[in-house]
Structures are given as C-alpha cells and as structure tokens.
Amino acid sequence: MMVEITRNNFEEKYPEIEGRLRSAVFVAVDTEFTGLLSDPAFKPSLFDTGSERYGKLRRSTEHFLIMQVGITAFRFIEDKNKYKFVYDGVPYLNQKEEAHLRKELSKGSLFHQLDRTVDLDDEKSIQLVCSRVAKWAASAVQGDTLDLNNLDICQGDIRLSYVMHKELRQRFPDIWSFPEGGLIRVKKISHMQRKALEENEEQHKTLEETVMHSLLGFSRLFKLLTELKKPIVGHNILLDLMIMYNQFHEQLPTRLNDFKEEIHRLFPVIYDTKFLSFQMRKILIKEDMWNSNILSHLYCFFKEGRGRYLVLYSPIIELEDGAEICNPKETASNVSEQSQDLNVKFHEAGWDSYCTGYCFIRMAHIFAHVTCGSLVFGRILTSREHLLGVSSKKNCVNVIRANISHMCLDGPDPPSDRPNWLHVQAKGFRTIDVSKVAELFARYGSVDVKPFTRFRALVAVGNHGSAKDIVRQFQKHKELRVSYYHPLWHSSVFQTFLGTGAVVSCGMCAYFLYRQFSNIQTPSARSVP
C-alpha cells in the first residue's frame, strides 16, 4: 500500500504506520531536503579523511531542512508485504526542543507562543467560532452543550485546535471545552464546576499531550524506529542519517567517533545499498554489471534487466493488494515507457525509499547465494538468510569522493585504498597555477588539486591506474615536475634543509679548493730565489 502522509492525515494513519513498522523485516528510508552542497568549503574532495568529511557534512546540515521523509516497511518471502508512504509537511521536534516544549506546557506559556503563530485566516476562524459560542451562551442554561466540527474549523491542525480550546476557555468563564473525537464540545457550567475543571490536572494533560503529539509529528516515528531496532536501509545513507539525527534527535556532535557511537546505539544495523553495489562488483562478471550504480539505474537493472535473474528463486516483491511491481513479461516498448515514468518519480522520498529497499532485497538474495553456497542451492530463501548474506557488510556506509571508500559506523574506518598523493612542482621557480594543473590532469580521471607552497601543489587521484598514467606522461614535461608525494622528502623543512645543505656543501667545496690551491702556490713561492 502506498500512502502519502501529510499534516492532515498523520494522526489518522499513525497507528497503521506503527503496525507496519513493527511487523517489518527491515525498513528503507530516504530524505529530500532543502539546500545543496554548493559552498566550496563543503565540497567533497579526494583529500578528505573520514573525520574531515564528517565535519564538512555536519556544518552543511545547518543549512538544510527536511522536506520529505520516505519510509517503506518490507515484509517478504512468506507474506511479501510492502507498505510505503511519503511524509510531507509533518512537523517534528528534536529532543532538546521537546524538553523545552514540555517545560512551556508545564508553565502554561505555550498557548501564548502558539497564539502568536496564528495567521490571519486562522484568526478569522477563531473569531467566528467565538461569536457563535457567545450567541449560544447568551440563552444556554447549565448543562447545555454545543458541538463544533473540529475538522471543519481547524482543518486537521492540532495546534490550531489547541489554541481554539484555550481561547474559548479564556474568553468565557461559564463554559468549558472538551475534545470529543472530531468535535469540540462546549458545555455551559457553574462557577464551582469551572473551578474543579481548572484544578483537574487530567483535563489539562489530555489537551496538552494531544498538542505534544502533533508537534512531535515525524519525531514520533523516528523514536519508534529507534525503539524497534529494525535494520535500516538507505542509498548513500550517511547524509540522510546525519540530517535525521540533527532534526529528529539532537544536535550533531562535533567528533565523528561520538556520532558513530550514538547512531550505532540508535540503529544497531544499517545497510547502504550504494556500498553493497560496490561490493557486488567484485563478484559479478562484466557482462552482468550495471552501467551505473546511482539509484535509478540500479533499480532499473534489478527490475527490468538481468539483475533479477542472476540467481534462482529471486523473491517476488509485490504491493499489499497483490499488484506485481515487476512484470518479467513486459515488452521492450512498455519497459521504455515505464522507464521514462520512473525518471519523473525519482527524488521523491517515498518512491526512493521503496526503490532502495527493492534493490536491497535483490542484492541480499545474490549475496546469500554466494555466502551460503550449496546450502541454499535449489530452494527459496528466508528473510533471515537474506540478512545473513549481507551481515558482514552491515554498518558500512559509502563516502563519496574521499580518501576512504566508506565509513564503519560500528568501528574504526578502513585504511585508504587510494594511490599516494602526487607532488607537482613548477620548474624554474615559477608560481604554480593550481587550476591549470587540475585541467591538465582531469583527462586522466578524477583528481583534486590543492596548493602546497607557492611553487608546488598536491594532487589526490581517484585510482592507481590514473596516478601511474599521470606520472608517466609528465616525466618530460617542460613546465611541471611530477612525482609521488613523500611526507618527509617533500616537506618544507626538509626542502629548506636541502637548500641549506647545498649552500654549505658549495661553501665547503670552495674552501677545500682554495686550500688546495694555496698549498700548490706556497712551495713555488718558496723556490723563488
């Protein structure tokens, strides 16, 4: 079942969402957020260590705001059930904000803060309701009630409903409002009844907990996911994790290790389909490989291409109502038309979360066959066996264009498998042009260049083949001297020492020649009569 979740239906759908998540084998997530990494200070670089990349992303999240969260809960094999929804506009609070809100609720000052956020249209609604209640109260007697349709008045906005209750109770000392399902029930009461209701903490608590749940919004789902400890699956999930942590949990810690420790506590098992796709390249032959491992291409490979039939008994993935998502008998024209439709859907959080989970199931099935071998040959696998097939790859998240290929969220990061940096020096002690170096080297593959000194630059190269090609091609270059970087030999201190040593050596050589020349001349002088 695919459902779009917004502010208007979040409360209605929440119990159903909770049930789906509790019964899921794993949960795929994706976020869409405002902002791009356009600031040069946040730009990914092949020089970045894990800590440096984390620092860049942490600073960039200050400029991001989640617009959508997509969650797809997967139950497959026996039940093959899938639930998908798109979160759009549901409010949220992190732990610090929630604590502050509860404090404001206990002091009774939340009403004044929410009242200031009411717009002109909402203010008109409040005035109309108050006018209607005033007209009714003028002739009503104690015990009379007036039912107001909360949905019509507040359009499903719990915060406006809260303000409405508070406003009615404040304006009319002889009435009390009660939330009754989808109604605001107003009752004419005596002074003594009013005093008793005002002193009844349960009356306040019910209303305040309702608004708390509304304001928490998606944060409630985030907390539920942390409680359930289901495996979380994402595609290039590092930034998604950091943004959700920052906006639904608490402020991101300064140190990478602190983030790892806390995110691992919240979500003990995380899978990144981008990382899995790189690992799968090691076991597939070239003919069975996808052209690109961006999500849309990966999904089409496993849905329409060879990816679904690489091993036997690949599970069927179907909607709750039994509608098959992938039809292996589609004609080529239908596939082409469908692919065009898919391109429009990608980068919608709900759709992307579904596609991520779809690819995860396909890859987990292949890895399970490779891992278990003859133990699973010729039979249908269970969901437990699928997860077992990828268990060695859990908590490894892809890192785009960095010194490391991935981060380990439950331990130290792997050593870099990138080639050593290249050291580039301008001949003739000319100032080096970093942009020109980058342009010259770019034809050999992915490179990043940064200045080292006025006359020298360092180059990080994406792979060993490209690094070898650059060193070989620039051996006899007229303007640049290129070699592999050595931290000692190319350090400024060592270069200064070599320069100083050369001066000292020349001085000593000159002194030695002078002494030799003097020794030759002295006997001759002595022979002169």
Count all strands and give the number: 15
What is the CATH class name of the largest domain? Answer: Alpha Beta
The CATH H-level homologous superfamily of the largest domain: Ribonuclease H-like superfamily/Ribonuclease H
> What's the mean pLDDT score?
79
Q: Strand sequence of the main sheet, in spatial order?
A: 1-4-3-2-8-9
* Class of secondary structure makeup: alpha+beta
Which fold name fills CATH's third level, the topology of the largest domain?
Nucleotidyltransferase, domain 5
The share of residues in helices is 40-55%
Low-confidence parts: 79-83, 85-89, 109-117, 322-344, 520-529
**What would you call the shape?**
elongated
Number of helices: 20
Give the count of structural domains: 3
Walk me through this protein's architecture:
There is one protein chain. By secondary structure, this protein is of the alpha+beta class. It has 3 domains: 9-88 and 219-325 and 345-408, Nucleotidyltransferase, domain 5; 95-214, no CATH class; 418-510, RRM (RNA recognition motif) domain (Alpha-Beta Plaits, 2-Layer Sandwich), CATH 3.30.70.330. Helices cover 49% and strands 15% of the residues. The protein is built from 20 helices and 15 strands. The chain has helices at 10-22, 50-60, 95-107, 110-116, 120-137, 150-154, 158-171, 191-199, 201-216, 218-228, 238-249, 256-266, 273-280, 295-304, 332-345, 349-372, 383-389, 434-441, 464-473, 492-527, and strands at 2-6, 26-33, 66-75, 81-88, 145-149, 175-180, 183-188, 232-234, 270-272, 396-398, 406-408, 422-426, 447-451, 456-461, 480-484. A 6-stranded mixed beta sheet has the order 1-4-3-2-8-9. α1 (10-22) packs parallel to α10 (218-228), α5 (120-137) packs across α7 and α16 crosses α17 (383-389). The chain is elongated, with a radius of gyration of 34 Å. The protein starts with a strand and ends with a helix. 31% of the residues are buried. Mean pLDDT is 79; it is low at 79-83, 85-89, 109-117, 322-344 and 520-529.
